[in-house]
Amino acid sequence: MGVRLMVVDDHRLLAEALASALKLRGHRVLAAAAPAAGAAELVITRAPEVCLLGTATPDEPGAFDPVVRIKRERPQVAVLVLGPVPNPRGIAAAFAAGASGYVRHDERIEGVERAIMKARAGEAAVAPQLLQGAFSELLNPAAQPDDEGQRLLQMLTPREVEVLVRVADGEDTRLIAAGMGIAPSTARTHVQRVLMKLGVGSRLEAAALAARTGLLDRAGPRPPAASPRTGSGAPQ
Fold first, then answer.
1. SMART domains, from UniProt (predicted)?
2. Residue 233 has pLDDT above 50, yes or no
3. Is the confidence at residue 141, as pLDDT, over 60?
4. pLDDT tens for residues 101-116?
């Protein structure tokens, strides 16, 4: 018995060709639509047994948002992602979004049909090597190098990081200079550079940004605070 399914892909020719091939093999293809933006709405409205959902960028953030919505509103629909070979994180993201499997764009029609039947039966429809990489990524996710706190920290020199920590601790220019053994004029220059690099207009904003992004937690141990008396003797 044929499967009631949909083919949705950004590449209309690919979608129509795949839909035609599946019809010839006895499946009931409800629609073949191109726009990815309306994919979820279309699938939710038609409620097929299996949806073949194409993506050209499986490694991009948000690539599987349509899958999330489909599974939230039509959990009985099995979603098979069609796309190029992604890195393991892309496969993991597809499964995390609720996909039943991942099929390469260059797969033979027999392979696509096998994946469809597996997905309808509730099985994982993905090549074993891709599945192994996905599970490894899910169990041991790679650290994300692009979080805001880490990015901001990399913009500052070690001395500027110390200045920012002291600013966040409420030290004024005189105390910063005393604690770091530099002239007050040099301390003011460091503070201005920190503000400029962080894109803020005041010390208060700099301290708030550092706290919000977790930059202070990454900066290491707090430097010893200087007393006002020590600050009066700071070198000029």
1. HTH_LUXR
2. no
3. no
4. 998 888 889 999 999 9
pTM above 0.85, yes or no: no
Spatial contact of 99 and 79, defined as CB atoms under 8 Å apart = yes
Q: Within a 10 A sphere around the Cβ of 12, how many other Cβ atoms?
A: 12
Question: What pLDDT was estimated at residue 107?
Answer: 86
Helix (H, G, I), strand (E, B) or coil at 40: helix
Can you name the residues that pair with 5 across neighbouring β-strands? 29, 50
Rounded distance between C-alpha atoms, residue 60 and residue 176, angstroms? 43
Q: Which two tokens stand for residue 188?
A: 């003011």
Amino acid residing at 155 = M
